[in-house]
Amino acid sequence: MITSEDRMVPNSLIRTQGYVNGKWVSAASGATFDVTNPATGEVIASVTDMDQSDVRQAIEAAHAAWPAFRDLTAKERSSMLKKWFALILENKDELARLMTMECGKVITESRGEVDYGASFIEWFAEEARRTYGDVIPANTRDKRLVTIKQSIGVVATITPWNFPLAMITRKVGPALAAGCPVIVKPPSETPLTALAVSELAEKAGFPPGVYNTITTSKNAEVGLELCENSKVRKLSFTGSTATGKLLMKQCASNLKKISLELGGNAPFIVFEDADLDAAVKGAMASKFRNSGQTCVCVNRLYVHDAVYNAFVEKLSKAVGALQVGNGLDAQSQIGPLINEKGLDKVKRHVADALAKGAHVHMGGHELEGLFFQPTILTDATADMIIAQDEVFGPVAPIFRFTDEQEVIRQANDTPYGLASYFYSKDINRCWRVAEALDYGMVGINEGMISTEVAPFGGVKESGIGREGSKYGMDYFTEIKYMCFGGM
Ligand code: NAP
């Protein structure tokens, strides 16, 4: 049960001002915007609403802080990151409650996100000390050739509401490790978690101007400044493909370096030789996490004709047991959708699928407020919107197939290429299918693939670049080649 105390905003980490040049500041205009709890519709807080003039100040401060910050030793930056990592874990419960209140995700998942988000800071605190260059065998006897990796400069990050903490740390961790000051633009739905981690960054001792957070509801105006201001040398964005394309166009004005983590349309293939219980477990983890609102959520389940009915039956049992409710209630497994727009999209996808011949096997309806029943649709087909576009909700459409080549073709028949999954016990098939799937990530007999130690990212319209892993720092450094002559 949720007690009235649970419903209260955790006070010690709540901040409603932006964080610029080491100070908590309000927008020059004095404007604010409200943050609401999607589970209840209640306003949690009013946050300062910054605009172009405010973001310019943050850019100036970050730019001024850059030389001294990049000149610290890697070990000095690593120590600050380690301190920040420890502070985030110390405040895990409060951060998790704040996150659940502003984005609706159930509390166990919010705690998991704090761990996941913090893991990037620890990982890049370690990677900071391994930013090696090369010594290159020279092309003539009188030359010596070397490369070094240098910090790219001021980094701006723009992130979505579905991972209010981890999408920030996955970018800011490597940026700070590389010696880049950052300007964080969190989503207007979930600025409170972003401000709370800024407060912990301040406590960790990052110098003024190195860590800045701009809260705003004027995403287009602030985004344009971040893209077009040439003092920002890199933009790292996670969000929808449509916004990513717009930002990329805007960044072309000064050829700013850009990394994009965008939308997906993940296929999940269950072959006739799969372990069905394992496949159900993987589908549950990947489809219903965050009420189906993650970029790596399964969007299309392809099940072989020979095991279709058995799989649907086993999946129905698991889906039928899901508890829907306010994420602060420890029993809840499915929270609300983020807003009306998200709910409308789910309803539109379901209505379109039913009109084109799908059947509701379970669920199919909205509940009170922004909640939607966990839903299974059978007899899904390629002409349905849900086959082409991420539903971003707790709806599992199940397609039928009989042939391996054909299902690979269908799985790849999308402009997206982020995560994909399949289940089979045949090792030859596992290699064959994994290589044939046109995706940045493949889960083979596994539904949970994200970790700080492995490269996260997509191909085609799912983005540019990789986050996490040994590759993650590369996107925040420039390689400098030095040629020593007359040796
Ligand atoms: P979105 O509308 O693109 O918003 C993402 C961020 O961009 C928010 O901070 C948003 O601010 C900001 N934004 C929107 N329009 C902008 C503009 N014109 N200029 C500058 N900033 C702008 O995406 P969303 O629907 O909130 O997030 C869900 C999407 O993110 C899904 O497509 C999901 O697949 C994708 N995603 C991808 C990954 C990945 O790693 N590949 C991870 C998580 C999510 P406001 O909040 O103020 O609108």
Question: How would you summarize this macromolecular structure in one to three sentences?
Answer:
Helices cover 38% and strands 20% of the residues.
Folded structure, characterized:
- This protein has about 475 residues and is of the alpha/beta class.
- The protein has two domains: about 5-260 and about 460-480, Aldehyde Dehydrogenase, Chain A, domain 1; about 265-450, Aldehyde Dehydrogenase, Chain A, domain 2 (3-Layer(aba) Sandwich).
- The protein contains 15 helices and 20 strands.
- The strands form five sheets. Strands 14-15-16-13-12-17-18 form a seven-stranded mixed β-sheet, with helices on both faces. It has a six-stranded mixed β-sheet with strand order 9-8-7-10-11-19, with helices on both faces. The chain has a three-stranded antiparallel β-sheet with strand order 5-6-20, with no helix packed on it.
- α5 (about 105-125) packs parallel to α6.
- The termini are far apart.
- Residues about 1-5 have low confidence and may be disordered.
- NADP nicotinamide-adenine-dinucleotide phosphate binds near residues 163 and 188.
- NADP nicotinamide-adenine-dinucleotide phosphate binds next to α8 and α9.
